[in-house]
Amino acid sequence: MSISRQNLSIVIVTFKSEDVIHQCIQSIDSEIDIIVVENSDNEKFQKELEEKYSNVKCYISKKNLGMGAGNNLGFSYAKTDYVLLLNPDVIFEKSMIDKIILGAKKIISFTILSPQSSNIDYPNYKLIEGNKNVIKSDEPFKVKSVDGFAMLFDKKKIEKLIDIKNPNLFDENFFMYLENDDLCKRVRDMNENIYVVPDAKINHFGGKAVNSKYQEEIEYSRNWHWIWSKFYFNKKHYGYLIALTQGLPSFFSAILKVIFYFITNKKNKKKIYFYRASGFLNALLGKPSWYRPKI
Questions:
Q1: In this structure, are 232 and 151 located in the same domain?
Q2: How does pLDDT run along the chain (295 residues), one tens digit per residue?
Q3: Helix 215-238 crosses helix 240-263 at what angle (to 10 degrees)?
């Protein structure tokens, strides 16, 4: 079975994303069904989207679930054979859907497929080690992992990853960061394939998904969760010792910067590195990813 607009749906997880969600939706073909999961209780936002766009159904999670759990919820509502997960701060380039449909036809089998970021300085994929010569200008190529802002799934294949050990598509222990790397590793561990279609282009504005007026609090959250998620990912896949040895340099660096910025009276910088150190300590002690931005 091949991808078509009729058997593809798009899932977008939002949180305070009013500034960017409309340009994202408007770049998507109107005949494709879109499922928005709003990680709050904002019924006004829900009503606005559903009244403005006939192809959009918005679900309210009631609380901030995080990216992985929000995507799991949206994925559960999707009834199509293929599901494309998007961040709200992306815009499709012209004919992106046509090109990803054509690219998929060139591949014998895939579990995850991704368009390519239009920003060549920040590729949205990691290549398989020793396989750096696979990239051709117009041919899909196999990769180690893709970034979470645009991931297209063959629904039947990706659902094979759900078992007793991994009861959800995305591991919901991650609140944000590395949940996509965890999923891609599980796909590859099952000898399934991840591809990028290079001529299907997408623009990602990076870090713009949440309204800019909350930037300071979101920055604290990002620092806390990045270091927590890195420790948890390494512990899950490579063991506690690896997680510890790879995380300690960042932890000690954060502590030194907290002291330095305390002395120089730079309160915002001090708080950023305090949250980074706190995230590591919580992961080290086996505590869940509990921190939530205060907005």
A1: no
A2: 789 999 999 999 999 898 899 999 999 999 999 999 999 999 999 999 999 999 999 999 999 999 999 999 999 999 999 999 999 999 999 899 999 999 999 998 999 999 999 988 889 999 987 666 666 667 899 999 999 999 999 999 999 888 878 889 999 999 999 999 999 999 999 999 999 999 999 999 877 777 777 889 999 999 999 999 999 999 999 999 999 999 999 999 999 999 999 999 999 999 999 999 999 999 999 999 999 988 7
A3: 150
Pairing state of beta strands 150-154 and 194-204?
unpaired
Indicate left, alpha or beta for 87 from its phi (over 0: left) and psi (-120 to 50: alpha). Answer: beta
Nearest to 194, CA basis, from 280, 126, 123? 126
- Residue-wise over 10-19: b if at least 16 C-beta within 10 A, else e? bbbbbbbbee
Give me the sign of the Cα torsion angle 144, 193, 184, 61. positive
Considering the domain architecture, whether residues 149 and 279 belong to the same structural domain is answered as no
Determine, yes or no, domain membership for 193: yes
Integer Cα distance of 233 and 227 in angstroms = 10
**What's the pTM value of the predicted model, to 2 decimals?**
0.93
Regarding whether 100 and 31 lie in a shared domain, the answer is yes
In a domain, 294, yes or no: no
Count: domains in the chain? 2
**Residue 116 sits in the same domain as residue 221:** no
Query: Domain of 48?
Result: 8-204
Characterize the bridge pairing of strands 125-126 and 141-142: unpaired
98 within a domain of the structure (yes/no): yes
The answer to whether 292 and 221 are in contact (CB under 8 A) is yes
Read off φ and ψ for residue 117, nearest 5 degrees: -60, 140
Q: Are 264 and 256 in contact (CB under 8 A)?
A: no
Indicate if 194 and 229 belong to the same structural domain: no
Same domain for 270 and 228: yes
